[in-house]
User: Fold this.
Amino acid sequence: MRLFLALELGSRERRAICQAIAPMKKAAPEASWVREENLHLSIKFFGEQPDTAPAELEKILAGIAAAQPPLELRISGLGAFPNLRAPRVVWMGVQHDPRLELMHHDVEATCAAHGFALDARAFRPHITIARVREEMPLANARALAIAARAVGYKGVQQVTELSLLESTLTPAGSRYTRVASIPLGGA
Assistant:
């Protein structure tokens, strides 16, 4: 099973994001847009794991979560990796929060101590809204960049738990199933 740890967004926040980015979808129809129910902020990708991993991870993550107070995600801004001129991943930004960075660090260090691989990439908190599989025509990339600049969305999401999710790849796209919810301290 493919597992990852995430902060899930509430239905109201997901719906508002989808409404805000609707003009971008028209500008870049060749992009694979993330379905509303799949919008989240990834903390750590564990990759393919044995069926026993969720129970083990839930125990490991419970200790980390207990030490973390609930937090507020401040969502605003749009961008792309590597950039909007040649996008591969289009994302909605999250305002820098040292507590989120600390949470990621604690998850990485603790999971590594239990034999789980470290993430190869630096942690850059974001909400993926689209993926671009093949090079986008320059005109569409420009239209996407213009549409992205016009999105003035700002949102706030209260986060009270970590979600361990299973990702199942289907012909219709990824399907995420929550296998564990781990409350943050004080939640």
